[in-house]
Design goal:
This protein is mainly alpha-helical and about 100 residues long. The protein has helices at about 10-25, 30-40, 65-80, 85-95. The two termini are about 30 Å apart. The mean pLDDT is about 90.
Length: about 100
Amino acid sequence: MSSTIQIRVDDDLKAKSDSLFKDLGTDTTSAIRMFLTQAVANNGFPFELKRNIMKQNPFIPLTEAELLSRLELSRKHADEGNLRSADDVILDMRSKYGL
């Protein structure tokens, strides 16, 4: 069995939220359902979602020069000791996100 929830919102708010949720890969109805599910599971406001505002699509392939430049920067950081082990990163993620 399922129930229907009806709410009234300003037209501008509805349009903006529809656009936001579309950018996040979902729709307003699904976003509200996710919010309610997580609110109950967390016994409060559960999460914050933000649109990733980027000037460039992160999935555009790098040129060879860009890739080599980034690799060189990574090597420099590693040589300076500015790095973390994968195990430490995984432990932090597990702790932060309860995994």
